[in-house]
Amino acid sequence: MRIAVVAERRPGERRVAALPATVAPLVRAGHEVVVASGAGVAALADDDAYRAAGATVVDGDVLTGADVVLHVRPLLPADAGALRPGAVTIGFASPATEPDGVRALRDAGATSFAMELVPRISRAQSMDALTSQSLVTGYRCVLEAAVRLPRFFPLFMTAAGTVPPATVLVLGAGVAGLQAIATAKRLGAVVQAYDVRPSSADEVRSMGATFLDLGLEVLEGSGGYARELGEDRAQRQREALAPYVAKADALITTAAVPGRQAPLLVTSDMVEAMGPGSVVVDLAAESGGNVQGVVAGETRQVRHATVVGLQDAASAMPADASRLYAKNVANLLALLLDDAGALALDLDDEIVDAACLTHAGAVRHAPTRLQAGGDDVTATAWLTVFVLAVFVGFEVVAKVSSTLHTPLMSGANAIHGVVLVGAVLVTGRTETTAGLVLGLVAVVLATVNLVGGFVVTDRMLEMFRGREGRR
Ligand SMILES: NC(=O)c1ccc[n+]([C@@H]2O[C@H](COP(=O)([O-])OP(=O)(O)OC[C@H]3O[C@@H](n4cnc5c(N)ncnc54)[C@H](O)[C@@H]3O)[C@@H](O)[C@H]2O)c1
């Protein structure tokens, strides 16, 4: 089998998807590993190191003819188009934000595995690249704050006097946030943290930081992730956080909600209230930012505060970021191979099933399928259903004698039963107030139709029974 390791083409990306340490076992297993020249240089793996591990180093295209392609950032659509049908790709695919890339993978007939779709279950921990890379970014963002802060992080008691420790406030205590807390603690800062998920409080405290109890209602979505806050709850949270932000020497924000734009936790007014020399590092800058006005890749001054929109944070530490990522990729690849080392995709396997983004010319991941299908296709499908429904409804009503319209109610009952089920499902899943209101309206209207239909049908039947009785 020919396994290709690409040189990342996105600006700012310095990681690599396979290192000599993960290439060597593949070569020993009898695979041909082809590495794009220079792919691992920033990660401290030069071409010779790959050659020593048994790989072939190629100047230029490695995709053509590859059975398996290992990458970090999503393949560019043009690159995905060069894949042969049935080729397997493993890497980040950004399915929520890069529909063109997903379509290109689908149209190429590739079987793509997206690292961000690997389920967060115990068995998949060794393949969880979101976690391994968040570890890197959480560590890195504290260093970014520390080098910009014109003060020490730790307490110093010296003959020349006592220097108090810096106060670091971390917002969002997921994997990156917890690593930021741990790193800031190691550097000796006094650390405070806040997260909407109540389960994070104990984790924060176990790291020696103070969990801020803002006295707000707690919110936790499914799978241990946060839910998007309603605007009112988000506003109250910002107001409650404002005094802590104002007192912090360094503010680090890491909050995210899967598949959504990063929540706004800190307004410009809050940043303007921070003291001289303060530093803000927004790890969520690339997905919209937790801090108002932040721009990914830019550092700007907001009154006293230096605000850093962190970009490519994991790539800032390409050696260790790649070491962890390459291992995640190798572990996922191993799951796709049988004992003889041949590709054997078991789509019934929970991890393989969840991580498989495209396969056999189709998008397998349902939420992405709607998006990658293209809005036009989706809109056309909905419009077709609507037009057909109107046509069928019109034909049924128009072609039936008006005296029989009321008995038609019984048929409508069945349809409204389905509508009611759909409305309940939509209401249960929605995360926005507008969705909830519309869902509840749909539930009420469908219920009225359903109950009304049964009542009228019942009366009709009574009427017919009465007639038969009189006869
Ligand atoms: N293998 C596993 O079981 C495994 C591995 C990694 C993470 N996890 C869990 O997954 C969950 C998500 O971790 P993640 O690092 O991917 O999270 P994430 O990157 O999706 O979000 C980062 C943090 O931001 C927080 N957040 C979101 N909106 C917020 C708001 N408005 N205000 C304050 N905080 C807000 C979230 O609660 C989360 O803790 C955690 O519970 C983590 O423990 C499980």
TrEMBL record:
Topological category with respect to the lipid bilayer: Multi-pass membrane protein
Ranges annotated as spanning the membrane: 379-398, 410-428, 434-457
Catalyses which reaction(s): NAD(+) + NADPH + H(+)(in) = NADH + NADP(+) + H(+)(out)
Segments forming domain Alanine dehydrogenase/pyridine nucleotide transhydrogenase N-terminal: 4-137
InterPro entries the UniProt entry points to: Ala_DH/PNT_CS2, AlaDH/PNT_N, AlaDH/PNT_NAD(H)-bd, NAD(P)-bd_dom_sf, NADP_transhyd_a, NADP_transhyd_a_C
Domain of life: Bacteria
Entry keywords, A to Z: Cell inner membrane, Cell membrane, Membrane, NAD, NADP, Nucleotide-binding, Translocase, Transmembrane, Transmembrane helix
Cellular compartment(s): Cell inner membrane
EC numbers, comma separated: 7.1.1.1
Positions of the Alanine dehydrogenase/pyridine nucleotide transhydrogenase NAD(H)-binding domain: 146-309
CDD domains in UniProt: Rubrum_tdh
Family (UniProt): Belongs to the AlaDH/PNT family.
Function, in words: The transhydrogenation between NADH and NADP is coupled to respiration and ATP hydrolysis and functions as a proton pump across the membrane.
Record PANTHER family: NAD(P) TRANSHYDROGENASE (PTHR10160), PROTON-TRANSLOCATING NAD(P)(+) TRANSHYDROGENASE (PTHR10160:SF19)
Designated name of the protein: proton-translocating NAD(P)(+) transhydrogenase
